[in-house]
Amino acid sequence: MSTEWNWPGARWWKFDFHTHTPASDDYGKGPDQARFKTRTPEEWLLDYMRAGIDCVAITDHNTGAWIDKLKEALENPKLQNHSYFRPLYLFPGVEISVYGGVHLIGIFDRDWSTSDIDSLIGAVNFPTDKKGTSDAVTQMSFNGVVEAINKAGGIAIPAHVDASSGLFKLEGNTLSQILDCRGIFAMETVDASCTKPPLYTEKKLRWTEVLGSDAHHFNGQPGQRYPGSHFTWVKMRTPSLEGLRLALLDGPLSIRRSDQETGDPNRHAPLVLESIEITQARYMGRAKPFALGLNPWLNAIVGGRGTGKSTLIEFLRLALRRT
Predict the structure, then answer these.
(1) In this model, does residue 23 exceed pLDDT 60?
(2) pLDDT bucket at 2, cuts 50 / 70 / 90
(3) Cβ-contact 292, 312 below 8 angstroms
(4) Closest of 156, 216, 219 to residue 188, by C-alpha
(5) Residue 131 and residue 125: Cα distance in Å, rounded?
């Protein structure tokens, strides 16, 4: 985890929305590609652990071949005893090359497997002999693929919309129809200051903007992205698809890109109340101590009349000697 966190409630997690493994044909592209393609699942996981990433969406080109391998490697005792080991949450996903040449990321529940991704790839009519490549495309339209992802319970995120194979490279009716798709509420932008197409502005869209590494290398090769180089802070209680969905719908209140947030958003004041415990009061803490864990940020006490809200505040006032 980014920081030691023992508080109740939500916190910020480092989330990489866009990653590649050797299952993608272009992983390690360059003069040393043959060597990079020999990396093991354990080595791949350690790349993200060293970088301090908490959550990783596995989004290879039109394949989920490494999802089961990575899940199995994460349970390997040898890896868990490694000096760089730290908790890492894997989110199965895929980067689909959609009809028209646009790339679309699908992120799914953490219990999804390689076979689940294979089924989705088949459902959107992607050529089965082209898995792992990005040059072939689905026979299904962009909106149809989004619908398939949503129907499967996943989250559809247009990939690098402002770059090559990105959604914003389209124009006219094609772009207009996609922007009308109700199944999209987040997108990956390479440059947070990129100029949105006039159609996007005219339709008054406010898709949440996230950032992924789109890493095809494990280290800082010149001009290449790598694990930890780009990511998004996501505020959730615990990493889950539903928590991710709520954060994306919440927008800027729960999403911060690493190119806009240079510090650690989990930071808080050095002196905070950790908890309140009351024993042997007239009506509270009689059978057993009444304990309430607190968060270092905003705490809200909610309850009906007579449930003890004011009493709790009164005891806190007395303990702190606030007259």
Answers:
(1) yes
(2) very low
(3) yes
(4) 156
(5) 12
Residue linked to tokens 């009506």: 283
Instruction: Tell me the two tokens of residue 252.
Output: 């800027």
**Tokens standing for residue 284:** 């509270």
Phi, psi dihedrals of residue 89, rounded to the nearest 5°: -105, 120
Which residue is associated with the tokens 């009493």? 311
- Distance between CA 216 and CA 193 in Å, rounded? 24
- Per-residue pLDDT of 201-213, as tens digits, reads 999 999 999 999 9
Q: How far apart are the C-alpha atoms of 270 and 249, rounded to whole Å?
A: 31
Residue 281: name the closest of 273, 268, 271, 291 by CA: 291
Distance (Å, whole) CA 323 – CA 318: 8
Q: Is the Cβ–Cβ distance between 265 and 12 less than 8 Å?
A: yes
Using one digit for the tens of pLDDT, what is the confidence trace for 62-116?
999 999 999 999 999 999 999 999 999 999 999 999 999 999 999 999 999 999 9
Q: Which segments of the chain does DSSP mark as H helices, in order?
A: 33-36, 41-50, 67-74, 77-80, 114-123, 142-151, 172-179, 198-202, 241-250, 309-319
Question: What would the pLDDT profile of 173-192 be if each residue is shown by its tens digit?
Answer: 999 999 999 999 999 999 99
Q: How many Cβ atoms are within 10 Å of 313's Cβ, its own excluded?
A: 12
- Rounded Cα distance between 89 and 92, Å, is 10
Sequence-ordered strand ranges (E) for 140-272: 155-158, 186-188, 208-210, 232-236, 255-257
Sole residue written with tokens 């095809």: 216
3-state helix, strand, coil in the chain (%, to 5): 30, 20, 55
* 170 in Cβ contact with 217 (< 8 Å): no
Q: How far is CA 202 from the centre of its chain?
A: 28
Residue appearing with tokens 């060293």:
50
Distance of CA 285 to the CA centre of its chain: 41
